[in-house]
Amino acid sequence: MKLFNTVLITVCASLITFSCQNKKEPSDKLEKLNLLKTQLKEIENEITTIETELQMSGELEVLAVNEIKVTALKVEEEIFQHKTDLRAGVASRSNVLLTSELMGRIATINVSEGQRVAGGELLITLNAQVLKDNIAEVKTQLDLAQIIFEKQTNLWEQNIGTEIQYLQVKSNAESLERRLKTMQSQLNMSRIYAPFEGVIDQVIAKVGEFSQPGMPLLRLVNPASMYLQAAASEVFLGKFEVGDSVQITFPIQNKQLYSIVTAVGQVIDGQNRTFQLEVQLPKVDFFVKPNQVVVLQLVDYENTHALTVPSKLIQTDNRGTFIYVIEGESGKRIAKKAHIETGISFKNKTEIVSGLARGQWVADKGYRELSEDVVVELINKN
């Protein structure tokens, strides 16, 4: 340090002597200012040269006040995932509107909203008295036709009567049988049965109303057959597979569950350019209703050997994107710009595609104060 001060004094003294020996003093103040600036620059350059030589020889140490304190992160391979959120809805394979197949006045409604029913249970009956009377009439005609057919058969076997008589009697009996079956089927249509076990969600019809074919009478839902359905944009083609893990968020209940993808649609909707995803609804301990909105979070990108850095450390200059890396050993460490190519970012982390190697140290806290080749002091390494 004493040697450095001696050199500095010598240089200043030489400059003063040179200035005094210059007999042609500039009269113009501007020229004088320019001359002094030139002399100052020469002095600074000479000081820098001497200081560098002394540092390299070990006679002068770098002043600690010039070091910028930073922390560093070691770059290691890790599993990097990008996830996307999809809006989905609760659907049910057993959510049906039961309708009438016949015209008729509603005679009885045997259930109420919220009632649980078994498969095959009678729910609604239409007034079918006219049809019942017609069935009774046809039965009487059929009984007579069968008696005549039996007698005509006996006569035919004894070679009595013509073949035409026998065939007419037989045809009449068979025609009445088919007519009776048709009318009995129509009578069954006047009774609305539960097609599966479930809960009566809505009773639309009222006793005394006149029912038309196709008219909705009530809604039957089976909660056990519910699932989740989402429409995914075509940009996600090939991103999801059956068996992929899914995080399900129920915003209303503020609950999160996990499930799997059970089906991936193979056709893109021409209207909205989406394909369907189905997700199994896991067992829940809270109420879930059809058409309820949920949010699905799925992994649409994964790299099992990714190099990542905190996104906040990435900066830009005229050459592109860069981060500061720390080079050097325990003696002298400096900050260097590493220009990089970035990939996907997710949750404050960015994938580095190129420009960074495993094992390098990246400046973390204090990175904003760094510049190229600045000397740094590591507080700690993470």
Any key phrases for this structure?
single chain, 382 residues, alpha+beta, conserved putative lor/sdh protein from methanococcus maripaludis s2 fold, Elongation Factor Tu (Ef-tu), domain 3, 6-stranded antiparallel barrel, 5-stranded mixed barrel, 4 helices, 22 strands, 38% strand
Description:
The protein has 382 residues and is of the alpha+beta class. Helix 3 runs antiparallel to helix 4 (163-189). The chain is rod-shaped and about 150 Å long. A six-stranded antiparallel β-barrel has the order 2-11-14-13-12-15. Strands 1-21-17-18-22 form a five-stranded mixed barrel. A four-stranded antiparallel β-sheet has the order 3-10-8-5, with no helix packed on it. The protein has helices at residues 2-21, 29-57, 129-157, 163-189, and strands at 68-74, 77-92, 95-99, 104-109, 116-117, 122-126, 191-193, 198-203, 210-211, 216-221, 226-233, 245-250, 255-264, 274-280, 293-310, 315-317, 320-327, 333-339, 341-346, 349-354, 361-363, 375-381.
